Amino acid sequence: MQQHFDAMPPGTANHVPLSPVSFLTRAATVHGDRLAVIQGETRRTWAEVGDRIRRVAGGLAAQGIGQGDTVTVIAPNCPELFELHFAVPMAGGVLSALNTRLEAETIAYIIDHSDSALVIAGTGQLSLIQAALDLAARSPKVIEVSLPDAKPQGPSYADLLESAPFCGDGLPVDEWQALALNYTSGTSGRPKGVVYHHRGAYLMALGTVAAWSMPEVPVYMSVVPMFHCNGWGHSWMMAVLGGTMVFPDSTAPEDLFAAIRVHGVTHFGAAPIVLQMLAESPAAPTQPLSPPLKVMTAGAPPPPAILERMAALGMDIMHVYGLTESYGHISQCLPRDAWDVLDPATQAAHRARQGVSLPMVQAVTVLDRDTGEPVPWDGETQGEIAIRGNTLMKGYYKDPDATAQVMQDGWFWSGDGAVVHPDGYIQIRDRLKDVIISGGENVSSVEVEAVLYRHPDVQTAAVIARPHPKWGEAPCAFVELRPGAEADEEAIIAFCRQHLAGFKTPKSVIFDQIPKTATGKVQKFELRNRLMQKG
Q: pTM to 2 decimals?
């Protein structure tokens, strides 16, 4: 009988490539009169946004953008960046949204490595892009996203909007086709290009709707930078529901609380550092928000004390875990009914775990790397978090060796050490990579060390994470000076600031002998012990 089932191949009627672009068509028709975006005085419905996106996609096609062409975008969260999350893949291109806090040297590397065919930049990032292009081998055209009522300095986003609308449904030929290219710092010190496919983005959006129990018409405040895993896929998610994206004036606590109050925000996502700033802000409401505001947090394990304070403000925090390679969140600390009877501090401690897999993920588990077997659920035995599912990257762009290294034995190996509690909930114990997470941003210790070694007075350098009251973690540099050198902490930090983005720059410098193995390898665990002793 099996042969009869096999003789039923898929066709165009019953097998359509999965892509988040498809969400836009439905939102523009079914929810056409609903507000899609709010920024300042700007209000646009889904019908209006749908038309703009098709025109921008048409403009990109007119610029020669087609299947597999990388479009680099560097701009703060704004309606235009939201539209580009649909317009670029609709035209067949690959969206590469860059961190606005990167320095020109790294941006130049990414432009070259990504084979960028076009750059779209906010007015505030034009000088940075020009500095990067002066260093880059490639010279793609630059299109400006100018501020409202401002005159652009050259080709502009407004010019794209004058184009004829894109024809067709904008779906890929193959759902495995590249959709986005996100750069993440690795232990090699050079950013790695993480390639997303249409299928993964589609399933991430739908899975988040289910995991977050989204209401019919959510009002989502855009806080998560859209260069972080494409804003955790939340732009595509909002099109599923025809909800409203609110772009606050800034991420300052007073502006976030104002947007929540004025626009009736129901959901937002943010790194723990943002939650801490909200909890400590004088602008925080004196009475708990009602109904509770749904908040997703990720980027680093949130301190339980912060979760407790946010709960007191009327914010229902869902802690999630993931990586750039997994499109963002792939596990959630799903609350259990049994936790309701626990005291607030204990509840917060439970909510700080990395939890269980999200609906669209096949498996998130903790394995013994040597045996490949699951670790016991005892909350003590440490293994490595391993992931399997459709929301995993295609691989690292132009780096098959690095791809093969993390994709082994049918699993993606995260590099994060964790335990599993008796209730099946995962909790990270230690990072297996020397990556520092500062304010939700990944910082490669190797990259910072490379800059330190460029200082003429530095003989040996090593960088590790140090607890920081504001950023959670910050780079701490251990430095051995050359004989006769007299550089001090201020001079070392100032030098690094000339060559690194602010969040990568060490916040402290310790002058000391750096312990090494017989083969000359730095013993970073000894440096961590020294920091613990210093407090």
A: 0.84
